[in-house]
Specification:
This protein has one domain (5-411): Alpha-Beta Barrel (TIM Barrel). Helix content is 44%, strand content 10%. It has helices at residues 5-11, 27-39, 74-80, 98-121, 134-140, 162-168, 201-213, 224-233, 257-266, 276-279, 286-298, 307-323, 331-345, 372-380, 385-411; strands spanning 43-47, 84-90, 126-128, 144-151, 171-175, 216-218, 239-243, 269-272, 350-352. Strand 7 (239-243), helix 9 and strand 8 (269-272) form a beta-alpha-beta unit. The protein is globular.
Length: 412
């Protein structure tokens, strides 16, 4: 989940674009890319789809086209050859009171339970993955891969020892912070600025415990100070599960070239993000913002919205695009960031984390059915099949393997 619900709604109106992507692929290019895509292990490192598991009328086995709440479901995963990825336990940042921390603790555990319930309800279709080698085995069995991740460590503030419980239940990727500072770390986007100048003492302890358990650490959403702390203290590589290039668009959520090179030297990976607000400056008028707030309120609010209301939301946002036009990120913008990162650190340190169901998607790539366009673009750039395979899953799984092997050695 990239931003708070209102900002999320803005990006998810992409099914009816006002802008057009200039990049185009021939039928032959897409056919070739689709054929390769089906043979590759295709993983996305940041799927916010579990946010929909609490909606009574959401069925992951059914297709939910033209719905502002959904970009990932089983039929569209099959069409786009998405084998799975890291399914996020996202928790919004509260006011940091004791009551808020308890609510966040309960929310995280509930979302974990909902992911496990989805797996239990669809054992022939989805399977929990625990090791780096599990993904290929699950794909070979004809199932979709579910690694569990946590976006924002706030559910652990009330009781950091819960990390071991999450790990036992399948957690394999952890980020410390989200949109605002918390007790563990500084956020890249807190308007108050840094509080800890990186990780707090509790944050350092949390990262150390994650390393001990073999959980991969995710720097996305955290400040540059957190990046620097992770670089200094971690004995294994880390990743950015959904981030972009600061040299292309100077946003605090994006990573500068010097740190990109430091990440690569550490063996880490940055997963290219497709959230429009981090790809370019999306101009929004005050009137548009006010209209979005009214639309969300009329439909019951983000957390309580049904899938049926999500379809109404998509239509309402399309009307707002006509009434209050704004700039939208396109596939060209995504490829500009993606290409820059490839140029700076090479194909062994870049992957894919589109931020589906959390605000991701651009004009020309609205949901998972469009994923072969990325492969077609990589083929057009002249990358080998082995390099493309690493981008789609090999790189992030290498980091996981290193984290798990290090933890196993320390436990002996």
């Amino acid at each position: 989940m990239t931003l708070r619900p209102l900002s999320l709604l803005v990006s998810l109106s992409l099914c009816w674009p006002l802008a057009a992507s200039a990049v185009e692929f021939s039928a032959a290019e897409l056919s070739k890319a689709s054929a390769l895509q089906k043979t590759l292990l295709t993983l996305d490192s940041h799927l916010d789809t579990p946010a929909n598991f609490a909606r009574a009328d959401f069925d992951i086995m059914q297709r939910h086209d033209h719905n502002a709440l959904s970009q990932v479901d089983y039929p569209r995963m099959v069409e786009g050859a998405l084998d799975g990825g890291f399914w996020a336990i996202y928790t919004d940042q509260g006011d940091r009171s004791l009551a808020a921390h308890r609510a966040e603790r309960d929310h995280g555990l509930l979302r974990l339970m909902q992911i496990r319930e989805m797996l239990a309800a669809n054992p022939d279709t989805f399977q929990l993955a625990l090791t780096a080698d599990d993904a290929a085995r699950i794909k070979a069995a004809g199932k979709r891969v579910v690694y569990i991740s946590m976006e924002n460590g706030s559910p652990l503030v009330a009781d950091p020892s819960l990390l071991s419980i999450y790990h036992a239940a399948g957690l394999r990727l952890l980020s410390t912070v989200h949109f605002a500072n918390n007790e563990f770390a500084d956020s890249a986007t807190d308007p108050k600025g840094p509080e800890w100048n990186g990780l707090s003492p509790a944050g350092r302890a949390l990262v150390e415990e994650a390393v001990k358990l073999g959980i991969v650490v995710d720097q996305s959403h955290a400040s540059d100070g957190v990046f620097d702390d992770l670089l200094e203290m971690m004995p294994v590589p880390f990743i950015l599960s959904h981030s972009s290039a600061k040299a292309v668009y100077d946003h605090p959520r994006n990573l500068d070239d010097a740190r990109l090179r430091q990440l690569a030297a550490k063996g880490g990976v940055i997963q290219a993000n497709a959230y429009g607000g981090y790809l370019l400056d999306e101009a929004k008028s005050p009137e548009r913002i006010q209209a979005e707030e009214a639309l969300e309120k009329r439909l019951g609010g983000w957390d309580h919205m049904t899938m049926a209301k999500g379809a109404e939301l998509a239509a309402g946002l399309a009307e707002l695009d006509e009434q209050y036009p704004r700039r939208k990120a396109t596939l060209d913008d995504f490829f500009e960031h993606f290409g820059h990162m490839l140029d700076v650190v090479g194909p062994d340190h870049v992957g894919i984390g589109m931020d589906w169901d959390g605000g991701g998607g651009v004009v020309g790539m609205e949901d998972t059915t469009d994923l072969p366009k990325i492969t077609a673009w990589l083929q057009r750039r002249g990358l080998s099949e082995a390099q493309i395979a690493n981008i789609w899953s090999g790189n992030v799984l290498r980091v996981m393997r290193q984290a798990q092997e290090y933890a196993a050695r320390q436990a002996r």
